[in-house]
Amino acid sequence: MHSQINIPIHWSKKLECVLAMSETSSITKTRSEVWRTRVGSALRTTLACTIAGCTYLYGPAPLRRYLTYPAFTYSTTLLIVSDATLGDTLRGCWHVLCASIQVMILSLLALHLVGPQNFTSLVAALAMAVSAFLVALPVESTHLVTKQIAFGQLVNVYVRTVIDGAEEKVAMHTIHVVCSTALGAVAAVLAMLLPCPSPRLAISQVLTFPPSLYFPMCFLIFKGY
């Protein structure tokens, strides 16, 4: 049995009035708010992809030698930055780190056991099947985004090894994929930090509530309503 919470009558009436007014005003502002949110998200996505593209084109030569998967960089950026706040983007960077660790362990183990020169299409398919099974096995402990990134990284590593595995060292393909993925995550964070027109924080979405609603809402939250 949950204990009944006694809410002051004047707070309850005030909350009802504010909610009614907010609902009425939100009807007229919905279109403009949705449009503004979509445009801001599109601008930040474009900015993140621009940062990644400029790094590939004009970045330092030693850095560009490790960035050989531009398509996966853009895919990672779009996966992290779309309709996200700064906190969501930082969480996406954590997913990238977890996925990269898994891929480095699995791919390097497979490449050391088989050898890049012996990596045929059949061997790559078997290695991909086993690695994908191990990545997907943890149901609750691994986030879905982490698994998606890891699957993409594994595909890039194994396919590239089949194409020109004998020409590269064992760990180079994995390092290239991880670096390209990391660039996508960094570009997403930079796009969130730069003013466009201002950094997109979760608190900015909370502040869209009417100020008169803050205190009653805080009371209900702290009371466990």
Mind explaining what this structure looks like?
By secondary structure, this protein is mainly α. The protein has one domain (9-222). It is 75% helix and 0% strand. It has nine helices and no strands. Helix 1 crosses helix 7 (172-193) and helix 4 (86-114) packs across helix 5. The chain is globular and about 70 Å long.
Topology (elements, then pairings):
Layout: H1 9-58, H2 61-64, H3 70-81, H4 86-114, H5 121-136, H6 144-164, H7 172-193, H8 202-206, H9 214-222
Helix pairs in contact: 1-3, 1-7, 3-4, 3-7, 4-5, 4-6, 4-7, 5-6, 6-7
Largest sheet: none
Structural class: mainly alpha
Helix content: over 70%
Distance between the termini: 14 Å
Question: Radius of gyration, Cα only, in angstroms?
Answer: 24 Å
- Total helix count? 9
How much strand?
under 5%
Question: In the residues, how many domains can be counted?
Answer: 1
Order of helices and strands: HHHHHHHHH
Rounded mean pLDDT is 78
What overall form do the CA principal axes indicate? globular
Q: What is the number of strand segments?
A: 0
Low-confidence stretches: 1-5
